[in-house]
Every structure is written in C-alpha cells, then in structure tokens.
Specification:
By secondary structure, this protein is mainly α. Helix content is 71%, strand content 0%.
C-alpha cells in the first residue's frame, strides 16, 4: 500500500466511522463500542489481542482489517519475528488463499519499519 493509498484509506475510514456513528442507530453504536472494548487490555494484553485480530483478518481475507491490525500490532510493539509467527498461523489456518493478503501485509510492515507509512489512529472500517 503506497503512502498516498494508506493516507487515503486512513482518512476514509475515519470520516466514515464518524459519519456512521452520527446516525441514531443504537445497534451500530453498540457494535462499534463492543469492538472498541474488545481490543482493550484485560486478561489478554492489547498486543496479544491485536495479533489475534491480525490472524482473524488474514483468515477472513479482509485487506482493510489486515492493514489496520498490522499497524496496531506495530504500535503495540510486535517485533518482526513475532509478525511472521502470526502470519504463519494465519497462513496455516486460512490456507494458500491467504498468500496474496500476506504479501500486502508484509509490504505494509516493511513500510512501517522504514517509517514511510502513517496509518493514523482511527479504527478499521470493520473495527471502530
């Protein structure tokens, strides 16, 4: 994901999350709140929960969610070797169809490590 695409993705998800939450729909608001609460530290720390979210996103093949969780994992302090263990779990569980998504995840990780990608703080479109 190029810097421009990543910035556009981040701005879009933030704008749309705000737009969606401006609606008077308690089900949507509660789901977004539930998602936010799920990723807070509890019996599992944030780092572990984000790695779980990354595995699930790989298996479900959601590139937006993968990008979001790669960035959140990086922010939570996940190291490169741990990323590749997470990627391997997603690959084993999801099978070879995960490979194209794995490529994009590693590309984003490389950009984040080089400091050339800014994901912002807004949540994934699927994760408030």
């Amino acid at each position: 994901m190029s810097d421009d695409r990543l910035a556009e993705f981040t701005a879009f998800r933030q704008r749309m999350n705000e737009r969606i939450l401006a609606e008077d729909n308690q089900v949507v608001r509660r789901f977004f709140a539930l998602d936010t609460q799920t990723y807070k530290a509890g019996a599992l720390d944030v780092k572990t929960k984000e790695m779980l979210g990354l595995v699930a996103s790989l298996v479900l093949r959601c590139d937006d969610c993968i990008s979001y969780h790669v960035a959140q994992c990086k922010e939570a302090g996940v190291e490169r070797d741990a990323f590749f263990e997470v990627f391997s779990v997603g690959l084993v569980v999801g099978g070879s169809i995960v490979i194209p998504h794995l490529r994009r995840a590693v590309d984003l990780l490389d950009q984040l490590e080089q400091g050339s990608a800014d994901t912002g703080a807004a949540g994934c479109p699927d994760h408030a």
